[in-house]
Amino acid sequence: MGSRAAKHLNFLLFILAGVVIGGLLGNYLGDLPYMGFLKFGGTFGLSSPLVLDLGILALTFGLTITINIAGIIGMAIAVILFKKL
Predict the structure, then answer these.
(1) Phi then psi for 63, rounded to 5 degrees?
(2) Per-residue pLDDT reduced to its tens digit, 1-23
(3) What distance lies between CA 73 and its chain's CA centroid?
(4) Given this model, what pLDDT does residue 48 score?
(5) CB count, 10 Å around CB of 67?
(6) φ and ψ of 11, to 5 deg
(7) Whether the Cβ atoms of residue 85 and residue 56 lie closer than 8 Å to each other
(8) Whose C-alpha in 48, 52, 74, 78 is 20 to 30 A from the C-alpha of 38?
(9) What are phi and psi of 51, to 5 degrees?
(10) Which residues pair with 80 in a beta bridge?
């Protein structure tokens, strides 16, 4: 893997980590007074899974993405940290 591909992969991992950590913090800190705005967000994707039944094999596909304000803040922090490294 070339250095450019490795840099892109590291960037995606930083962003993913920022969204996950920010989302978790938003869910926990959003219950505190004056921190409720961190929990504000939305969910989009398939509301019910798509099932492909082939007789002997059944495949189930589903994807739901939930993002909140804290996840967006975490993603921004991850981008800033990545640029500083």
Answers:
(1) -150, 125
(2) 568 888 999 999 999 999 999 99
(3) 12
(4) 87
(5) 16
(6) -60, -45
(7) no
(8) 48
(9) -110, 130
(10) none
Check residue 1 and give its pLDDT.
57
C-alpha 21/C-alpha 80 separation (Å) is: 15
Global pTM? Answer: 0.78
CA dihedral 34, 35, 38, 42 (to 10 degrees): -60
Q: E strands of 1-85, at which residues? A: 41-45, 50-53, 58-61, 64-68
Which amino acid, residue 51?
V
Residue 55 DSSP symbol: S
Cα-Cα-Cα-Cα torsion 63, 70, 40, 36, nearest 10 degrees, comes to 140
Q: pLDDT tens digits for 17-72? A: 999 999 999 999 988 889 999 999 999 898 888 999 999 999 999 999 889 999 99
